[in-house]
Amino acid sequence: MRKWFTIAAAVTAAAASVVVISDYGEDEEEGSEALEAYMEAGGIERESLSEEDMVSLDPLDGVGSEPGMQAPDFSLPTLEEDELSLSDFEGDYVILNIWATWCPPCREEMPDFAAFYEDYQDEGVHVLGLNRTATEPGIDAVRQFADDFSLPFPVVIDEEDVVEDRYNVYVMPTTYIITPDGRVAMNRPGYISYDVLEEQYLTIREQYEEEA
């Protein structure tokens, strides 16, 4: 019940831009139609979540997914079977995108994450695509997805929903920007375009470097 109350409070106008985790088994055609309507509308911004809710560099005590908090660490395998920890990237910016193969908005935004990685990988920016493998029909579906989109960044496999619990993920996709000191600077549920991702990253980087 906790997640449903959170969803009702946080996601209203952007319902077509996200997939509620509890409903991932819904008819794919219905989800595709919702995504198409959302995209034709040019992207409906969230009415209940302001930019101040989703983006902040003001430090907060504790570990969690709220902007300003220390990002929860995790150690998980990748599709290449390497072990990867978030703390491995301390000192660099991390774009953490949480997705699933059955999520239409995840498919829609994935080429933008690949393009963003190609554009910014030489600037100390890492993109991690974390798959909620616990909800998938099998690892082959994840491999096929990564191949279909020629993903150039690590695909992290989460077979026990470790990150869903630690980051309180309630919609798909969800994207976080994590600063070099390991704090969450952006927690943005729902679809995000290249332009918005780039704008948020550049704004966060500029402010972070000014305050460093």
How would you describe this protein?
The protein is of the alpha/beta class. The chain has one domain: Glutaredoxin (3-Layer(aba) Sandwich). The strands form three sheets. A five-stranded mixed beta sheet has the order 6-5-4-8-9, with helices on one face. The radius of gyration is 16 Å and the shape is globular. Pfam families: AhpC-TSA (PF00578). One of its GO terms (cellular component) is cell envelope. Keywords: Cytochrome c-type biogenesis, Disulfide bond, Redox-active center, Signal-anchor, Transmembrane. It is found in: Cell envelope. One of its GO terms (biological process) is cytochrome complex assembly.
Could you give a quick summary of the protein structure above?
With 212 residues, this protein is an alpha/beta fold. 36% of the residues lie in helices and 18% in strands.
Features:
single chain, 212 residues, alpha/beta, Glutaredoxin, five-stranded mixed beta sheet, two-stranded antiparallel sheet, 7 helices, 9 strands, 36% helix, globular, disordered N terminus, cytochrome c-type biogenesis
- The counted number of beta strands is 9
Coarse structural class: alpha/beta
List the helices and strands in order: HEHHEEEHEHEHEEEH
Give start-end ranges of low-pLDDT stretches: 1-16, 22-31, 37-48
N- to C-terminal distance: 41 Å
The number of distinct structural domains comes to 1
